[in-house]
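User: Could you go from structure to sequence for me? I need the amino acid at each position, not a summary. Structure tokens:
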């Protein structure tokens, strides 16, 4: 791995870089909680929710195309700042104009798309900054703690969301205002990061040329290609799982919003425990270890599909969060370890192009499949996930040395 520019002093930990994503994630998770619940409760189906999030996801893919070259050619801290500023303004304006009793479809699509654009630029910039500011030996620990904090935000969001839903005068507008405030706090934290940008010695390339260079770099490292494929597959079923939970609560458990909030909280607790399980690991996880967790994820989906009782669904949701967290930490750390710093923005941008394309695809497809199969969709998801990973291993059999 190439050496980082000496302008930035590396540390074992960075509080602003740790807290900023946590604060904005808390607001986003609360917004998604409200969006999911209000739409499914109003319509009784998952298809409209799938369309809203699917369109936003396609916009996110378009943002990913521009994000990689931009992150590698301009100040990464400024990319994060402007992403949060735009997201803050969008949430604030939507809170002022939205009809909380009859939200307009295109307004929900527009806001979700804007937030996804902000995410499309913010996340690659944040991940690319980590190796510039954090010591190599502390990368997995920082990634694990950071992912744990995101899971902690996911714990607070459904609990807070459930409490808000119980207050009669609180509606969707309050969810938007809280999200706007979270972006404002994130901006303040980002301003506290000590980061100096060093322009590339090769000069600024055009977006197209830079993207071509990035694709060439990724294709020259088959292990990167394999990890992109694996994460893309996992994200198809991640999208489906999150659509299926509110549907199950609505149709099988009496539409109790508290039961839905418990599921989301348990998933987040599982994610937090998954991240904590890697904090003290002495070395980065190998790819075969990550793949074993994905096969276990498929087993979790099968169990959730064969046994419908709520306690079973609750337990499987917690295990799901645990495994998803471990998979995410492991893959991000491997990417950071095998990629030159000068290419990190483009590699993560290309990574998210693939992953984020699969996420809306999962929303579009499974939004309708869920209406057809109900919670039997869990079984289909488990079988397909295992088959897809097995096929990926077969194709990349010669490239398993990470």
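Assistant: Here is the amino acid at each position, in order:
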């Amino acid at each position: 791995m190439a050496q980082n520019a000496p302008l930035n002093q590396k540390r074992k930990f960075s509080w602003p870089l740790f807290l900023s994503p946590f604060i904005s994630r808390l607001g986003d998770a609360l917004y998604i909680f409200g969006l999911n619940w209000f739409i499914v409760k109003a319509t009784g189906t998952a298809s409209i929710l799938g369309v809203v999030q699917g369109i936003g996801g396609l916009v996110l893919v378009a943002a990913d195309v521009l994000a990689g070259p931009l992150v590698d050619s301009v100040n990464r801290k400024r990319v994060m700042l402007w992403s949060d500023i735009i997201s803050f303004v969008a949430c604030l304006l939507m809170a002022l104009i939205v009809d909380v009793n009859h939200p307009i479809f295109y307004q929900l699509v527009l806001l979700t798309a804007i937030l996804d654009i902000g995410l499309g630029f913010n996340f690659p910039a944040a991940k690319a900054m980590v190796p510039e500011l954090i010591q190599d030996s502390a990368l997995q620990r920082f990634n694990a703690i950071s992912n744990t904090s995101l899971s902690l935000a996911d714990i607070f969001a459904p609990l807070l969301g459930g409490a808000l839903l119980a207050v009669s005068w609180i509606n969707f507008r309050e969810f938007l205002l809280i999200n706007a405030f979270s972006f404002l706090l994130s901006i303040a934290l980002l301003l506290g990061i000590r980061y100096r940008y060093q322009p590339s010695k090769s000069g600024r390339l055009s977006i197209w040329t830079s993207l071509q260079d990035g694709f060439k770099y990724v294709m020259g490292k088959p292990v990167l290609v394999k990890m992109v494929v694996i994460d893309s597959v996992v994200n198809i079923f991640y999208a489906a799982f999150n659509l299926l939970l509110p549907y199950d609560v609505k149709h099988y458990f009496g539409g109790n919003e508290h039961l839905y909030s418990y599921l989301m909280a348990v998933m987040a607790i599982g994610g937090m425990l998954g991240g904590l399980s890697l904090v003290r690991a002495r070395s980065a996880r190998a790819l075969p270890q990550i793949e074993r967790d994905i096969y276990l994820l498929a087993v979790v989906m099968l169990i959730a599909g064969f046994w419908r009782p709520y306690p079973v669904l609750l337990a499987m949701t917690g295990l799901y969060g645990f495994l998803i967290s471990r998979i995410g930490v492991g893959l991000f750390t491997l990417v950071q370890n095998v990629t030159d710093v000068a290419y990190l923005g483009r590699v993560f941008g290309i990574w998210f192009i693939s992953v984020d394309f699969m996420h809306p695809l999962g929303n579009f497809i499974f939004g309708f499949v869920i209406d057809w199969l109900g919670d039997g969709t869990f079984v289909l998801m488990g079988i397909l996930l295992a088959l897809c990973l097995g096929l990926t291993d077969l194709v990349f059999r010669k490239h398993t040395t990470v």
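One structural detail worth keeping in mind: Residues 222-252 form the longest helix (31 residues).
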